[in-house]
Amino acid sequence: MRWSASASGGASWLRLHHTAGELRPGETTTITVSVDHDREPPGRWRARVTVAPSGAVVVIEGRGTPTPTPTPT
């Protein structure tokens, strides 16, 4: 079975390390998701990773660090 995974909702700060493949009966795979902290939005965020063709959805929640305000010199 061919499968694919993608981050939806414009979550460009999520990195999926496997996005597609093919599984034979009895095989499994691991989809690793990491956060690109340089692109992560500040404050609380919520994103979805969808796996096709099963329709499985994993909701991931996090909290980005706000960009520090420069102090006047």
TrEMBL record:
This is Sigma-70 family RNA polymerase sigma factor.
